[in-house]
Amino acid sequence: MSKTISEARIIEDPEELDEEELEGEADPESAPVETPEGADWNTVERAFLTRRSIRKFKRKQVPAHLIHRMLEVARFAPSQGNCQPYKFAVIRDPKLLVEMEEYCVDQCKQLTAAVNYTTYKKGSFGYYKARVMARLFNAIDPNMLHPVPVTAMTSIAHGKFMVFHRAPTVILILMDKHGIGVPEVDIGIVGTNIVMAAESHRLGTCWIGFSKLLNKSKEWRERLGITDRFEVSEAIAVGYPVGKPWQNLIERPTHEIAWFEDGEKQILG
Ligand SMILES: Cc1cc2nc3c(=O)[nH]c(=O)nc-3n(C[C@H](O)[C@H](O)[C@H](O)COP(=O)(O)O)c2cc1C
């Protein structure tokens, strides 16, 4: 039986490489780009360095063919075992977007009331009830009640922050829960392909983790055609940005790098 293309790639034997391939002059078409130390950032690097999350979009819709291009770039994302554990739902219907926003805001109101004890008078019944709930939630999923999402959720509940930021297009990334290994990692990669493809068209994007709230609703799962095997993992809001977001660079902490070379270990960063 003939091999599939992906099988053929996976079983390619590195031992078969000959000396000429390892040490010889690179074929000019695949020769590496010579980048001297201190050289300016190139176009691809600059796109990554200047990307920002956009939370204010123009009303103008993004042409459908650009969304198709972004999803075509998404198709070429690496994934564990090439399992590509995702599919997409593209929402461009303004009425549906408003309804999705309203549903998620309502969920944030309910969750805030249930767990954000800081919004209750200290010592009141509501305060203690919410504290108990928060402890319970924390035991189930310690990351969920991190102050950042809880603050954002509370702001959404009080109408000070939006879920989908009135973007004209929202791409829901639906994760196949049976994906190989850690499908969440593949979601991050495929989403990055979408975001960076959008950047190349000077479109603005924002990841929307709060889109997961849709999973809680049987009605929304049905409306969006989400079967049991799948769940909304993330969403990416897309549109034309207001202003010049790429000029607003933000501080990023450096991360420790352990560097092993010449029998030595150095800690950088
Ligand atoms: C997985 C993920 C989920 C996110 N969810 C939200 C969200 O629900 N709402 C939002 O406004 N921003 C969301 N963000 C955007 C982050 O807040 C943002 O990336 C971070 O503050 C850094 O800012 P920058 O993207 O402008 O560099 C999310 C980002 C990621 C990677």
Can you walk me through this structure?
By secondary structure, the protein is an alpha+beta fold. It has a single domain, classed as NADH Oxidase, CATH 3.40.109. Helices cover 39% and strands 14% of the residues. It is built from nine helices and six strands, in the order ααααβαααβαβαβββ. It has helices spanning 5-10, 19-23, 43-50, 64-75, 94-115, 125-140, 147-157, 183-199, 218-224; strands spanning 86-91, 169-176, 204-207, 230-239, 257-261, 264-268. Strands 1-2-4-3 form a four-stranded antiparallel sheet. It has a two-stranded antiparallel ribbon with strand order 5-6. Strand 5 and strand 6 (264-268) form a beta hairpin. It is globular, with a radius of gyration of 23 Å. The chain binds flavin mononucleotide. Flavin mononucleotide binds at residues 52-53, 55, 206-210, 234.
Q: What topology does this entry show?
A:
Layout: H1 5-10, H2 19-23, H3 43-50, H4 64-75, E1 86-91, H5 94-115, H6 125-140, H7 147-157, E2 169-176, H8 183-199, E3 204-207, H9 218-224, E4 230-239, E5 257-261, E6 264-268
Antiparallel strand pairs: 1-2, 2-4, 3-4, 5-6
Helix pairs in contact: 4-8, 5-7
The protein binds flavin mononucleotide.
The site of flavin mononucleotide has 9 residues, from β3.
